[in-house]
Every structure is written in structure tokens, then in C-alpha cells.
Amino acid sequence: MKSICVYCGSNAGSKPVYTERAMALGDRIAREGLQLVYGGGNVGLMGVVADAVLQAGGEVVGVIPEQLVNWEVAHKGVTRLEVVGSMHERKLRMFDLADGFVALPGGFGTLDEMFEMLTWRQLGIGNKPCAFLDVDGFFQPLIGMIDRMVEERFLHPAQRADLWHGDDLETMLGWMKDYSPASATKWLDEKHRKTMR
Hints:
Blueprint: E1 3-7, H1 16-31, E2 35-38, H2 44-55, E3 60-65, H3 66-70, E4 80-84, H4 87-97, E5 101-103, H5 108-122, E6 130-133, H6 140-151, H7 157-161, E7 164-166, H8 169-177, H9 190-196
Parallel strand pairs: 1-2, 1-5, 2-3, 3-4, 5-6, 6-7
Helix pairs in contact: 1-2
């Protein structure tokens, strides 16, 4: 693993602990010799993570749509800033650049980006590790919903187990480095799969 993509809020959130954990993650990424790939912003937790990596001597690649550059939220101090035409291009480029994906607290955009990576992995488009690094229980309700998807047979148990969730940075990085993707098919019921064709 040479690079990690971090998805997180373009706002800082309501608690100082969100910023503290974003700084800790950025610092650790740099000290592990990993490159940060992120959304290219200078605001919120996005800017905090990028600044922490840079301050610790690491490399940061930002990928940002042109519209957001025009809104003057692009981080001008990163190692490399790639400007793309759309959000769709941004997600694809970040996927190509990163060896794994981590979500810190955030809003719609954070969940959109992480769930697209999980969906691609489920469909066999990608095989890269995805982790929710929890802060103060932020992701607990979301993980409960994912567990509900398994209970109601909308998600394969092996694919749920293939997603890391926790609050320990050391454990998360170890899991990502040793990651081996689940081999379960998306389809829980082969009979239903045939009738859908």
C-alpha cells in the first residue's frame, strides 16, 4: 500500500475531537510513508487532514472539480492538485490513485464517495480496502443500518465483514495493509438472480 484516500467533511463538525482525529490520521499517513489522496479542499476536515500530512513531511494529491476551484476552496499548498471536470471524474481519479479508502466524519459527500467505492468492490470493479474510522461514535448509527441490510438479506454477510469499522488507527492501518477482499458474490440467492435477467 502506497497511498490512502481519505473522505471527510468539508466542514469541521461540532466537536474539537473531529479535528484532533483528522490531524492524527494525517500525521500517521505521512509517518507511514504513505501518500494522501483527497478531495483537494482547504476547508473543514479535508483541509485539516491535508495540512497534517504536509506538516509531517508527506505528499498530498488533491483531486477537485473545476466548479469547486472557482468557489475558491482549492488547497493551493498541496504537492499536486488535479482539476477535473465533474464529481464523477473526481471519484474515478481518486480510485485510480489510491490503494485504500478511509472515511472520517462528514456529510452527504463523504458517504456518497465511500459507498460508491463499496459498491464498486461489491460488483468486482475494485478490490481495495474500505474503512470507517470512527470518532466519538459518529458512525455507529450508520454501521447499525449496514447490519440491518445483512439481517434483511440485502447485503451478504461476507461483504459486511469485508468492511472495517472502529476507532483505533493502528488496528485500521494493519487491517488495510493485510487486506484480502471477500470472494462472496453480490447475489444472495442464485434463483432470484436468474429471474432478474
